[in-house]
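Running this now, will post back.
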Amino acid sequence: MSVRSRGNSWQIDIHLSKERHFATFPKTEYSYEDVLQIEKDIRARLGKQKVHVKDDINSVASDYLDWVKLHQKPATLRLKRYLLTLHILPFFGAMTPERITEGLITTYKKKRKQEIKSAVSKGNDRMINLELLTLRHLCSQMFKEKISAELLPHRKELPVVLTKEEVKAFLDAAEPKYRTLFVFMYHTGSRLSEALNAKWSDLDGNNVTIYGKGGRWRNVPISNTLKVELALYKGIMVQHESGRLFPFSNIYKAVDRTRKKAGIEKRVYPHLLRHTLGTHILEATGDIRTIQEIFGHQAITTTEIYTHIADQQKRNVLEKTLG
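Update: finished.
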């Protein structure tokens, strides 16, 4: 890729035979799209298409990661760099996209599954799928080529939620500092990040405004139990200068301490409180649309996981009862 980000400027660096065409553009005056258009115009004048014809995957990996850095999240960059370095490039690096056949993809899947089975490598089918998706995107972005890489069937394991009795035991066992946070998460269905970013100003007495993913927000009713909990909490906590309700850290450790104290054998983590509320609402009312609104899901299909969890809970009860 000939357009790169370098500090406060964009660079266009095109090599043609023994000639080099180099230019820089300040980011304050030119957007990435502007510079791409300039590069396209330069290549048109030089009679060269912006496609890697003879380059192999190794030769464009660095440019691809530059693109990921500009357009995707830091966590995605770290993951793709890891997948490319450890798995994709050692197998496909010396190839061009047209050499990557369905048979070769099948061979790669078998190789990776064997590595995972023999503990040579960590991972699972989902990890292999992420590798294939990264390879597909690299070929599409850098070569404008589509490769056929069918993903492995992978079903995400359903979370094992807490019973109402376990929720009570968990909240009763929580340290005073963290108890209100846990009650807030369970009674509003908020994600951990949403709860930690919540402010006193988001409360209006009967509702709390939850700011979620993608800048979206939603109003969630405050239950009577949560009202009492927040009133007690406000009386013992000194309000933080940021205005945040819960200016805490080390939440995962606090959750694990609470789990052990409550004598719960299940795996417990902050997001499980959200899963647990969704399941409890569905079991009590069957109202999946309300769960969607409370949880801020854009698609009803995301919320439908709770129907599967509820079905699994029923199945477990029957198996324990009937054998």
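DSSP finds 14 helices and five strands in the chain. More later if anyone needs it.
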